[in-house]
Design a protein that fits this description.
The protein is mainly β. 0% of the residues lie in helices and 54% in strands.
Length: 185
């Protein structure tokens, strides 16, 4: 058991028969009444986001999540195959359970698979990935980094807003939390 006073971003807990990851939290001490913790939680089974308030000092069960390093191999219909780099064991995850993550996954990319006992919960992406621009309007001489943006389609199908100086074939660093352009690679 863990106290809600010890919440931190990324912590996994068991609440209401679900496994949740703490995305954000705030300790609130009102002038009148008892202190409480306001939190934003993501359900690791279905991806739903929920705001929940706990009384200060309330105890919740900590969920023991194992992160196994695996390599994304290929798509097989609506299943996606991942391989454990140490045991060479392969698992398949349905498209529906990793829809958001697929925007950033390339073949042979290493990711962490979240496991709870024997249940596979999903894919944990790195904070940023390197993707190649496959389609964008050509840059015009004189365009600067501070002068606006244009859409660019990346090799995984993701469309992001990029500065005018980015051209087709450029490799970009993309933030996986927000799906936004960070810089050239």
């Amino acid at each position: 058991m863990i106290s809600v006073n010890d919440f931190r971003t990324g912590l996994t807990i068991e609440v209401d028969n679900g496994i949740w990851r703490v995305m954000d939290f705030q300790h609130v001490k009102p002038g009148k009444g008892a202190a409480f913790v306001r939190s934003k939680l993501r359900n690791l089974r279905n991806g739903a986001v929920q705001e929940k308030t706990f009384r200060a000092g309330e105890k919740v069960a900590k969920a023991q999540i194992d992160n196994r390093k695996m390599q994304y191999l290929y798509a097989n219909g609506d299943q996606h195959v991942f391989m454990d780099n140490e045991s060479y064991e392969q698992i398949e995850l349905p498209t529906a359970s990793i829809e958001y993550e697929l925007k950033f996954l390339k073949e042979n990319m290493e990711v962490h698979i979240m496991m709870y006992n024997t249940e596979t919960l999903g894919v944990e992406l790195p904070k940023s990935v390197e993707l190649e621009v496959i389609e964008t309007e050509p840059g015009i001489k004189g365009d600067t980094a501070s002068g606006g943006s244009k859409p660019a389609k990346l090799e995984t199908g993701l469309i992001v807003q990029v500065p005018f100086f980015i051209n087709q074939g450029d490799k970009l660093i993309i933030n996986t939390d927000e799906g936004t352009y960070v810089s050239r690679a």
